Amino acid sequence: MSGDEPKDQPAPSDRRQASNRRQVPRRQEDRRLVQRGRELEVARIISEALSHHVHSDGLIEQTLRTALDVVDAEAGSVLLADPTMKQLVFRHVVGVKADQLRGMAIPWDKGLAGAVFASGEAEIVSDAKGDHRHYPDIDKFTGFHTRDMIVLPLKQWGRLPIGVLEVLNKREGRLNREDVDILTIVSALSSAAIEQARLIEEAKLAELVHRMGDIAHDVNNLLMPVFVSAMHLQTQIEQLFASLPDVDEPRWQDGRQRSKRAFDTLQDAARRIQDRTKEVADCISGLNAPLQLSSCRLSAVVGSVVETLGLVAERKGVDLCADGLDSLPPILADERRLYNAFYNLVNNAIPEVPAGGTITVRGHADPARDAICLSVIDTGRGMSSEVRDSLFSGHAISRKAGGTGLGTKIVKDAVESHGGRITVESQVGVGTTFHIRLPLQPPGTATR
After folding, report:
1. pLDDT tens across 41-94, in order?
2. Do residues 122 and 116 make contact, with C-beta atoms less than 8 angstroms apart?
3. Dihedral of CA 415/352/327/435: which sign?
4. CA–CA separation, 64 vs 191, rounded Å?
5. Which residues constitute the domain of residue 379?
6. Residue 130 belongs to some domain of the structure
């Protein structure tokens, strides 16, 4: 064969196949580069958020929205564990009736959220309805149709999961392993923010506990002269009345009774200040003294609160009253704890109610459940959903200047220590109603 004869050339189809084989790893590498770019962009956005948000709530909300944008999903939520109630609580919600769902809770052993919380491993579900672990009650409540979802655990450093991150319904296609890789970054940074907030709160708490010990000691020292002086003055006045010539005269007797009531009120108020200081200190340190149970009439408890705060309400032009409490049966309860609970609710309501408004404590018996139902109803300015939903969480938002949110925690602790339950309804510009259900006797106590 001469040198100028043409050499054998591969067929066009063979050339195309060889070219495709060379392009496959190139396309895979391109996808990996795109994926890494997405992951770096998420890390950058969240890192910027870390520098702009002082509180973890704002950061987690921003992080959740970023997660949804990056994986192009319709909705998502962050659920945090409540070890006391063994529940997962919807703390942050985007895209699914957030105002209604935020603050709701599900058992932490139910649904895909419960499965991931228990295992500590992420789950991808392409068909939520077809997965037996799917918890349909939330979809029924919200009217949302969950198609596919990713659930990731939120873990503190070296600890068990503290909650879960859910992302629902990819707009195009289905959520996949690449989305999990990106969301893993999101969950890690969210967990870090929650852990940082926890450490800050623990440091604040330790300082508060120390300070409250000093304050309680000082309050007791300051009240002791009040007790002694009141007792001394009462003795002196009794002796003075005894030395008067016509001591049986009605006006002298009336003055004597008024003086006695004034001294009794003074001593009772001083004792309640001591109790209150101790309860605040216990609340801050996470302690609860054992209940001091006795037969208790709520009409007397609430009546004492109304009498104590009646002048404060009157000066503000607010009508403070009780309704339907005299017919309630007695309950087995700690009168001191319940007094403080109702005192908090009424005292917090007074500044919120404009002149001419009302605060009413109303109650009725629920014989079918061996319980008593009470409501504290005000015609005040109401609360935003954010404030309302935070009230009985560990992150209560106070609207008072310098407020700590401890008052609502004291109320919640008092009600729940009796085996009761407290909820709240509120609408801005309309008012607020606290609903309290108390059993006739706390669970586990002997039958009367």
Report:
1. 655 565 555 555 445 566 677 778 888 888 889 999 999 888 877 889 888 888
2. yes
3. negative
4. 12
5. 289-448
6. no
Contacts of 415 (CB under 8 A, 6+ apart): 341, 421, 422, 436, 438
Comparing CA positions, the residue from 272, 264, 265 lying closest to residue 342 is 272
27 pLDDT tier (thresholds 50, 70, 90) = low
Dihedral pair phi/psi, residue 194, rounded to 5°:
-65, -40
Q: Are the C-beta atoms of residues 395 and 389 closer than 8 Å to each other?
A: no
Q: Mean pLDDT of all residues in the chain?
A: 78
Q: Where are the alpha helices (DSSP H) in 286-331?
A: 298-315
The strand pairing partners of 79, in sequence order, are 90, 164
Please give the tally of structural domains in the chain: 1
CB–CB of 185/139 below 8 Å?
Answer: no
Give the pLDDT score at 445: 67
Q: CB of 190 within 8 A of CB of 240?
A: no
**333 within some domain:** yes
- 387 membership: H or E segment, kind and range: helix 385-390
Q: How far apart are CA 432 and CA 350, in angstroms?
A: 12
Q: How far apart are CA 420 and CA 434, in angstroms?
A: 13
Q: For residue 361, with 0-12 CB atoms within 10 Å meaning exposed, 13-18 middle and 19 or more buried, which class applies?
A: buried
Across the beta sheet with 105-107, what order do the strands follow? 105-107, 87-94, 73-82, 161-170, 149-155, 123-125
Residue 75 belongs to a domain: no
Residue 408 resides in a domain: yes
| Helix, strand or coil, per DSSP, at residue 124 | strand
Q: How far is CA 406 from CA 48, 185, 276, 284, 400, in A?
A: 32, 35, 12, 8, 12
Cα separation, 78 vs 61, in Å, equals: 9
- Which CATH number does the domain housing residue 347 bear? 3.30.565.10
Taking the CA atoms of 63, 69, 71 and 74 in sequence, report the sign of the dihedral they define. positive
Cα angle: 52, vertex 55, 60; to 5 degrees: 80
Is residue 433 helix, strand or coil?
Answer: strand
